[in-house]
Amino acid sequence: MRLFWYLLVAPMTAVGVITGAILFQSHAALSPVLESADQQHVPLASTQSLEDLITIRDRLLSEIEKQPPTLIAAASGLGGPTPSAITHQLHAVAVRIEIEEMARENLSKAFKLAEEAVRLGNKTTLTSATQAELQRLYQLWDQAVAALSEIPEESFLSQQAIAKRREYEANRAYVGYYYDTIRSGFLKKIAESTGLGDRVHLTVCNLQRECRRLRGNQPPASPASLIKVPVAIALMAKLAAENISPETKILVSPGNWTEDAGKIWVGSEYSLRAIMADMISYSGNIATNQLIDYLGFDYINRVMRDRGYNTTRVNTKLVGESTYPANLGTGPNVLTTDELTDMMVGIYNNEHPGDDLILDALVKQYDWELGYEAIKRPAVWIGEKTGQNSKVLGTTVGVNIQGERYIITVAINYTGSEPAVKQAVKGVVDHLIRHRGFGG
């Protein structure tokens, strides 16, 4: 039963009683302490299960039945709690029973949905699953997560629900990746329209993290200056973790000099915020190298791992035309358009401290040759970071289309063709406008 009716005793005459019923609904009346007939305090928190609560309820009901009518009790001097006191206790128990019954129902519902999902598919079958099968799998895991989310923190089942929700969310994300990917056929046509189809890496996501992708989980030949976004994210993580002001000034070491278009000079002091802004807005190599020194490769890569980015790694400082900075590092820098796009989604959602500072730098981007040039009304450009070297040309750009914000990341291997990158961005924007979203 969801709700419970209880007998109340009220004075009518010296020997008369009347019974009534109260429907308990308000959770605000939860009482931390219950009182029994012998005045012993029984903490509600001491109960361990729904069955314990039902036992307490039945005991209190029994106590009500044993109580003499109010006026008789008063005239005879009989002790014991008043009916209203016991009723209050019953109210608290009734509310908690309702919570636990609903929690049990939601947990059972989640388990049944998960069992059905497991029967329909697993990690070994997803690559060959049809779109309809993937859609059904995604819906099942999504509904299971939703059911677990309905279980409140005060429930006995909350810890079990939290653990299962994490598990089911991971399963939903895993299935969701394949479900999104199988619906990404339009990106192949867009890539082919550039004339460089097999070299194009392309990911587009809305801020709810629904995505479409083409080779999005495969690293391009190089991240070029797109790697500066992870460096900015790691900087903000350190400032937040160590309570460091972004206005703190540091000296830019002469050893970090290399050719670049930034405004930061070696041998001078700048605030951490100014150095980060120069790295993002002006794509400053010197600024990037100084922040790598400040953070360390290990710290940057630990932040990436902690946030679930298992491919992105910063292993080497940035080199301009010919000058190598001190403490260059070892091994290539690596990222994927999938992971970079997700980082940008986090920034635009302001999910972490300091994201607003990175976003401000993205909006003040100095390079308008790629995404900015490709995005035309009714779409609106809302920030960008570009990257180019001898191995890749790419951009990650924010766009607002009819009130919905998206991140589009394009990287094309072994080309310097700005028209190709702009064609890819424009193709995605046109599709989103035409279909009022991803469509299908």
Question: Proportion of β residues?
Answer: 5-15%
CATH class placement of the largest domain: Alpha Beta
Helical/strand content category: alpha+beta
CATH superfamily of the largest domain: DD-peptidase/beta-lactamase superfamily
CATH T-level topology of the largest domain = Beta-lactamase
CATH architecture of the largest domain: 3-Layer(aba) Sandwich
Summarize the helix and strand pattern as letters: EEEEHHHHHHEEHEEHHHHHHEEEH
State the major sheet: 5 strands, antiparallel
Topology, number of strands? 11
The overall pLDDT average reads 87
- The helix fraction, in percent, is 40-55%
Q: What is the rounded distance between the termini?
A: 42 Å
Low-confidence segments, given as residue ranges, are 1-43
Reading side by side through the largest sheet, how are the strands ordered?
Answer: 6-5-11-10-9
Give the C-alpha Rg: 31 Å
Q: In the residues, how many domains can be counted?
A: 3
Tally of alpha and pi helices: 14
Give the overall form: globular
